[in-house]
Design a protein that fits this description.
This protein has 17 helices and no strands. It has 431 residues and is mainly alpha-helical.
């Protein structure tokens, strides 16, 4: 067996059987696939059709997306506490039901108020049944392969974006109402069984982190082992202790800056491509979304494997610079080829950075209170997720195009890069 295959086999089967943590990774990928495909990354296509039917402004439609992110951010601390206290499975199941029923109600919308209310339900369900809840389980089951596990679990989100053209075909062939109704049914039918596979902490099920037992046949983690970022496997910090460190605020600020770019393109990229000087068709714009998420997949694989060996903080710093450069190219691309270059750069930066930020928090603060720490961090992160689409939409309504709005948002990526560069690991005493 080659060294690479041997290393993969040892990671997957540290005790001669498939470590259950990898089944949690697979279930997490499936759940995030549904959320990405049916809502997060297909929302831009819904925007185009809703504008055509109701003649709502870009800023008004983007405002619904922004308010859902604000709702998720405010919910974050309570959600984190619930997951830490009761485990992720029950929270995922409740969230999946709300998410699915929210989509079904959305299919019946006829007013702006109904639109906002149903999207509030969708946001609540996707938050409880999505990323933050899943990551509590993943980081609890892994330490040695944490970045890899997070990256692989997030591949579902990227593959969902890659499949957005399928949603576009459904929207064009069956209309947005039928597509939304079918999406809600699909979320419940597939999401609930996947949520059932997710477990909280390995010790509750007679297992250990990474599946590596302290026996002659296993390799126990070394006390105080250093992470690639200088943190150590010592006493976990409580949420209160984490929030007293500068690293908590700098990582949260850098994450928010990254999401200014991500959320703006998530909501407005298809509109920018179809209405801009290059005049893409809706199908071609969907293809660009697929290209972006294809690059995101490659970036996640690279980030996951390199993040377990090299400095996550410095890699995140470089990714923020890539976000800014990519968005600037998207804003002012004179040709489809240059547009593709900007989308590739943004997608790669997004993919590499995504798993590293989550793993970096777990390395710095530990996994015991990870849900609560992530919840309080979401209060800051949601500012980027909500402000970016509204700002880009307002600028486009005022100026007739997205170029200046995208350029100003790209400039904030420099501040995010500085935040990550300064986010040094906090001191953590031994138990």
């Amino acid at each position: 067996m080659s060294p690479w295959l041997h290393a993969i086999d040892r990671a997957l089967r540290p005790a001669g059987r498939v470590f259950y943590g990898w089944w949690i990774v697979a279930a997490s990928a499936g759940i995030q696939f549904l959320a990405s495909l049916l809502w997060m990354q297909s929302y831009g296509a819904y925007v185009v059709l809703l504008q055509q039917e109701f003649d709502w402004s870009k800023a008004l439609i983007a405002g619904a997306f922004a308010l859902t992110r604000i709702e998720s951010g405010i919910l974050g601390p309570l959600q984190g506490w619930l997951v830490d206290r009761f485990g992720p499975r029950i929270v995922l199941q409740v969230g999946t039901l709300i998410f699915g029923f929210g989509f079904m109600l959305f299919s019946q919308v006829n007013s702006i108020w109904g639109f906002y209310l149903t999207f509030a339900l969708i946001a609540l369900g996707s938050s409880l049944g999505g990323f933050a809840t899943l990551m509590v389980a993943v980081v609890s089951w892994f330490r040695r392969h944490r970045a890899k596990a997070i990256a692989l679990s997030q591949l579902g989100f990227s593959v969902g974006g890659l499949c957005v053209p399928l949603v576009v075909l459904a929207l064009e062939g069956y209309g947005w109402r039928t597509t939304a109704l079918a999406s809600g049914l699909l979320v419940i039918a597939l999401g609930l069984p996947l949520a059932q596979l997710v477990r909280h902490r390995p010790e509750l099920y007679g297992d250990v982190v990474d599946g590596i037992h302290a026996t002659p046949g296993g390799r126990a983690p070394e006390p105080g082992a250093q992470t690639p970022d200088g943190g150590s496997a010592t006493r976990d910090l409580t949420a209160r202790e984490a929030m007293r460190t500068s690293a908590f605020w700098l990582i949260s600020g850098g994450h928010a800056a990254a999401l200014l770019t991500v959320s703006s393109l998530m909501v407005h990229l298809i509109s920018h491509l179809t209405e801009g000087p290059l005049a893409f068709s809706l199908a071609a714009a969907g293809g660009m979304v697929a290209l972006m998420t294809g690059m995101q997949i490659g970036g996640q694989l690279v980030g996951g494997f390199l993040g377990d060996r090299f400095n996550k903080r410095l890699m995140c710093t470089m990714c923020l610079a890539g976000h800014g450069a990519g968005l600037m190219l998207v804003a002012y691309a004179p040709s489809a080829w240059v547009m593709s270059c900007g989308i590739v750069l943004h997608g790669l930066s997004w993919g590499v950075r995504g798993p590293l930020m989550t793993a970096l928090r777990a390395d710095y603060f530990g996994s015991s209170s990870f849900g609560t720490i992530m919840g309080f961090s979401s209060l800051i992160v949601m500012l980027g997720m909500s402000f970016g689409p509204i700002f880009a939409g307002l600028m486009a309504d005022r100026l007739g195009n997205y170029q200046m709005g995208f350029a100003l948002l790209a400039a904030t990526s420099g501040l995010g890069a500085l935040c990550f560069y300064l986010a040094r690991p906090p001191a953590r005493s031994t138990p």
